[in-house]
Each structure stands twice: as structure tokens, then as C-alpha cells.
What does this fold into?
Amino acid sequence: MQTAITLLAVLTLMWGMFRLIPGDPTTVFLGSGELPPEALAALRHSWGLDAPLFQQYLDYLHNLLTGNLGMSFYYRRPVLDVLLPMLWNTVLLMSIAIVLATMIGVAVGAYLGWKRGQRIETIGSLLVLIPRSLPIFWIGIMLMIIFSYTLGWFPIGGLRTPAFIPETPIQGVPGYDLAQHMFLPVLTSVIYFVSDPLMIMRTSMLEVIEEDFIMFARARGLRERTVRTMARRNAIGPVLTYLAIMVSFAFGGQVLVEVLFSWPGMGSLMVNSVTQRDYPVAQAAFFLMAVITILLNLLIDVLYVFIDPRIHYD
Amino acid sequence: MTDTTVDLPRRRVWRGQLLQILSSRVGGAGVLILVVFTLVALAAPLIAPYDPLLVHRMPDNSVAQLLPPSSRFWLGTTYYGRDVLSQLIYGSRVAMIVGIVSAFFITAIGTNVGLISGYFGGWVDTILMRITDVVFGIPFLPFAVVLVALLRPSLSNIILTISCLLWRTTARVIRAQVLSLRERPFIKAAKVAGAGSLRIMYVHILPNVLPMSSLYVALGIGWAVLAEASLSFLGFGDPNMLSWGEILYQAYLTGSFRSSWWVVVPPGICIALLVASAFMIGREAEIIVNPRLRNL
It folds into this structure.
């Protein structure tokens, strides 16, 4: 219910935002071409632009809910057709990056927390601050300079090599070309995302190792490794809660990574369509990102109950 | 959390906090970097060796394109033959303006929303917190791209966009603090003595949440500088202002980043240093506000 209200509010806000455009879609669609006033009026009528504002708002909601996102001004195709393939590319890149960053963050964070007060912990905690302060696109540029231009190991961008012909057996493995193109964007995102789960895991670990059951486990003479696994499992909660926030800001990083590596995803599509004044596409792309953020927040709330049975929702 | 600050005179608390930040190694370094950047930004016309937009030419009158660092151009020149160092120095102005103004708005809006929400409770609280939830549901950079592009890219629109969204964390944290302060005896005493809501909120509660707010001033500077750089890099920067993100955008657009490290590395390091200094001060402020962290 609350999620529905949030969604509705975001939708309304977005609708209002796109009303800020000077002129109306016809000026964008037709450019400054001279169209007879009657034809213009007919076009405005067929797009519902002469209806009262409130009616336009209701139409907009109705269209969105029935999956009718309109026509792209630029591609001259339904927005949904343009958007869907891009959506999968984005989901692919982002999910791999987030899963990897979380896994690495949890592992390293737990390790640093366990080594509390030792030199490696101090150094590690300071090192993580570095990627946190760097703009993600700058990390990407540096990786590109090193791995693509200097070493020539990875392609500079895009989704796949046009007319890719495998030359060695290993290049014949399905997905080899895609994996090669994905490597740098994923690496960039992982470096950028990893610091937060890492710091949270470390802090959480520091709290857990103070607890009685850890002391008891030690007193029972369990091996160090076993105790560490126990502590880690109990410390993971805050990282999962944080995932929801991470997804929301991950879209920001995703936009930059996609533009930098010319990855054909929703982020680069959105930036391009804003520049090309293709507002239906920009609006739909932005809408999808907001919906995904809100729904994932809900999903993680629900998942949390399964992971930590002590929590209940009414 | 603020037990110790409640009974102390306000001024002493503030001076104490500042001194504590300065005396720690991390916080002191952060303040030092921030001060240096501020001075550079203020004195930009005095210390910049050239006009940042001046196109330099070689003796044969060709554009001095992408010259490596030398004694004449300490950090080399850009694709258009401009001095990188001068651009960096002028770029610090944009970064400082965006950082400080946005941080002020982020903190002011967030603190007020948290204060009102926490103090009044009830339906006021419900409405304000629902709004905060909605704002949390909006992905920041995509929103900023759309809004800045629709409103036309300019420094004030960038600041507006940042301030519009990033107050959300401050609001939640301050509200939580106000909720616990509201039940303290000194607030009840003020109420019994006949103080009005406004007076209680701004005279009695506000000073106690200000240390926490100041943490968000520091974090806000960091967020805002990163946001401005990202927007400029996507081509939505203020076309009339030179910013570090803009330098990187030009380097990317012209492809000069491939061959000339000096157009990429210096602006990146400047952004990182400024953002890191803000986060370092923030970390120290956090430890002071929340002493439990000291042992962690």
C-alpha cells in the first residue's frame, strides 16, 4: 500500500517535471517546420494535448498502467520496443556488479573486522576511502587508459564486436565476446560499489564479536575459522538492509558507466534521449529506474523477514 | 547521545567540537585540504598563471594543442590549447560554490524537516516522512539529468537539483534525534514555563541537534561536488563555467584522454581530494556526535 502511494507520487512528480518543457511535444516532434494551423490543431487533438490538464494527467496514468508508453520521437517506434532490450542490458551489468561488490565487500569487511586493531585493519579501512571519494567515471577512464589503450586487453566499449569471428578455441566459447566487453564496466562499478558494504560489514562485525555467543564459542574450543564463520553470518544483516539504498544510488553510477563505455542500456538511452529531446523515451527510462528502485526496496524488506526470523511485519 | 552537551553553554560545545576535529589526524588533514581549496578558489585570478580560456599558440602560430607538462605549462595544455593548471584553479571556484551552497541547503532543509516532523509528531510527522520516503524512491543522478536538462544547464539549477533531493538522509537522522530529545526533562520544563512550540524547537532543541547537522554539512559538500562533476561529465554542466567535471568531459569528448594523461589525472585528483577531505571531516564529526563509534 505504502509502496503504491510512493509510486503514484513519483509518477505525478515526473509528469509535472516533464510539463516544465517549454512548448509542447508538437514543437519537438515537428521542429520549427511550418505546418498549417489546422493540421497542428488536429495533431494536438490526436495526442490529447488540447484536453484539460487534469484529463491529460488521468490519460497519462491510464496509459502507463496499460503499458502504453507512447511513441519515441527519435526512433519513431513504440517506446516499449526501444526500451526493453536496453533494460536487459542494464539489468545484466548492474546485477553482476552489485552481487560481486556485495560478496567482496562482505568477505573483506568481515576479515578487517576480525583483525580489529591490527595494522592490516587500519590500512584496509583507509584504502577503502579512496574509491569512495573518486568519481566513478574517472575510475572508468583510468581503467580504460590502462587496459584498453595501453595493454589492449579489453575493448573500449559497446556490447559486442560487430561480425565477431573467433580466432582461437577459447574465443569460440559462447559469451566470450560479451564477457570481454563487460569486464571493464563491471570492474569499474565493483570498485565504486564495494566500499560501502565493506565498511558496513566491518562495523557490524566489530559489534558481533563483542557478543556473548562468540565468547562462548571460543570457550568451547571451536576453531578460529568456525567462530569467524559464525560471527560473519550474524553480522550480515545491516549489509542486506543497505542493499536497497545501494540499488537506488547504483542507477546513478550505472548511467555514468553506460555512457562512458557506450553500453546500450537504460542509462545511456536516458541521457541520449534527454539530449535529443526525445521526452517519451527519457520519461519512460526514468520511470522504470524509479519503479525498480521502489520495488527492490519492498523486496528487500520482505526478504529480510526470511533472513532474520526475529523481525515481523504486520 | 547528547547528554554531555545539554548542560554545557552552547559556545563551549561548539569550540570543543571544532578543536576535537582539528586535533585528530584525519579531521585535521581534512580541514587543511578544505582550507587550501577555499584559498585557491578565492585567489584564483591572482594565482592562475594564464586566463583559463586563452588559446595558446606555438611560435609558428599553430594551436598549442595537448602539450605535455613543461616549465611554461606546469600541467600541460588541453586539446584546444588552454592551460590545464589555470583551468584547474578556476574550476575550484565552481566546486566550492556548488559544494558549500548545496551543503547549506541540504542541511537547512533536512534539519527543519526533521525538527518539525519529530517535534510535532502525529499527522505532520506522517506527511513529512511519507514525502521523505518518496524522495528516497527517486534515483538521484537520473533525476538530476532530467531536471537540469529540462530547466537548462546552469550552476543554480544544478544546486537546486542537488538540494531538492539530498536533504532526505539529514531529515531522517535529525528526526530520530528530536524524537528522543522531545522527552527530556528540560524540554518539559520549558513547556511548563510557557515556551511556545517555535521557541522550544529553535531555542531549546535546535542547539542540541546542530552537532549532528554539521556532520551533514561536511557530507553534503562531498556529495554535491561529486554530483556536479558527474552532471558536467554527462554534458549537463553550466556552459559558462569551468568546472573539473567539464575538463574531464572535454577530454572525453575530444578523445584526448587516450594520449594525454595530464588532462585527466589532475582534475580527477582535485575532485577526489576535495571530496575525501569532506568525508574525513565528516567521519571525525560522526565520532564526536556518536562517541560509541570511538571504540570501533
Chain A touches chain B through 50 residues (CB under 8 Å). Residues 270 and 285 of chain A are 6 Å apart (CA to CA).
